[in-house]
Specification:
With 345 residues, this protein is an all-alpha fold.
Length: 345
């Protein structure tokens, strides 16, 4: 499948093909939900998604790898080196790190705004020193770089049926919704890293504090007030998913099955958390395999139907001697051109 994806995307250079393959391996190993959804995209767009995910994962591993004994200062230096490699790769196409090489190629092909990556790395740096947030407003500023820009990076690859700026707020909201779900699912593991992404104001509203969460994590004991906090966080998360939902219909039809599948599977984690009694401090909630398979199958049926419809449209246009334009396809730019700048929303 990798060879087919690379050939369809027109990626010919052996070293560049190897770089994209490395990113795909990272996606397959660490991003099970994303990888499953990505397989519903047209083959020529998948390498770009793998590159975007691979870079995000690579940076996240520098910050969060619990198996590493690296001190915060060492992690900060590694992150700074990654940022320098990215700047060089984007500026001169001379990256030696495979993940950076694939990312830089994707950025040029799709004209992705470089500022999205600067914002992302800024949030990654804050994870080295910031262990909590006072309010959702404060957390939102962090998540602009850690999550919202991921949706904005993806948008040029997915394509839209109308002006991209109209879909951008929904794409950003979906990135935030996915990350809020991660925060809720992984709250116990994040505490082990010295972080709590649930705002202090939310805890205080239910009469608990961070120390109470740490007590529950370490002892295995439950507290109804903690459950109330987690339930409220899930409710807030669902509201963000509702904000994101209209954006799915704004995407290129061939991209919608992928994003719809990711939307359903990730929001389904909230259902799994609720069904497990909000026990996320003690175990990870998982969407049942049967449910994952059913959602993936539905996405596959939708993807096949859209592609078949597009092929029929093309065939009919050829037979009629007409030319059918495809304004919804993502615009792949000349690799030598100046990248398109897009305001982050």
């Amino acid at each position: 499948m990798t060879v087919r994806e690379l050939d369809a995307a027109g990626i010919r250079e052996p070293a560049l093909r190897a770089a994209y393959t490395r990113c795909r391996e990272l996606n397959a190993r660490h991003g099970r939900t994303y990888f499953l959804a990505t397989r519903l995209l047209p083959v020529d767009r998948r390498p770009a998604v793998h590159a975007l995910y691979g870079f995000a994962r690579h940076a996240d591993d520098i910050v969060d790898d619990l198996d590493s004994s690296a001190a915060p200062g060492e992690r900060a230096r590694a992150l700074l080196a990654l940022e320098a490699q990215l700047a060089e790769g984007l500026r001169r196409d001379r990256a030696t790190e495979p993940v950076i090489r694939a990312l830089a190629d994707t950025v040029r092909r799709y004209g992705i705004d470089h500022r999205h990556f600067a914002a992302f790395l800024s949030s990654m740096r804050s994870d080295l020193t910031v262990g909590g947030y006072a309010s959702y407003e404060e957390l939102g500023r962090y998540m602009h770089g850690s999550a919202a820009v991921i949706g904005l990076q993806m948008l040029p690859v997915l394509g839209t049926v109308g002006p991209r700026e109209e879909a951008a707020p929904h794409a950003a909201a979906l990135g935030v919704a996915f990350q809020l779900t991660n925060f809720l699912r992984d709250v116990g593991e994040d505490l082990d890293r010295g972080r709590l992404y649930l705002p202090a104001e939310l805890l205080a509203a239910h009469g608990v504090d961070r120390e109470r969460f740490e007590w529950s994590r370490s002892t295995g004991a439950r507290d109804g007030r903690i459950t109330d906090v987690l339930r409220a966080a899930a409710s807030h998360n669902r509201a963000v998913y509702r904000d994101a939902l209209p954006g799915v219909a704004m995407l290129d039809p061939v991209s919608r099955p992928c994003i719809r599948t990711a939307f359903v599977l990730y929001s389904g984690i909230l259902d799994a958390i609720e069904a497990d009694g909000y026990a996320v401090l003690h175990r990870r909630a998982v969407v049942p395999r049967r449910r994952r398979a059913a959602v993936a199958l539905d996405g596959l049926v939708r993807a096949v139907a859209v592609r078949a419809g597009r092929r029929r449209l093309r065939r009919g246009a050829v037979e009629a001697g007409a030319y059918v334009s495809e304004p919804s396809r993502p615009r792949v730019v000349d690799r030598t051109a100046t990248p398109v700048r897009e305001e982050a929303v």
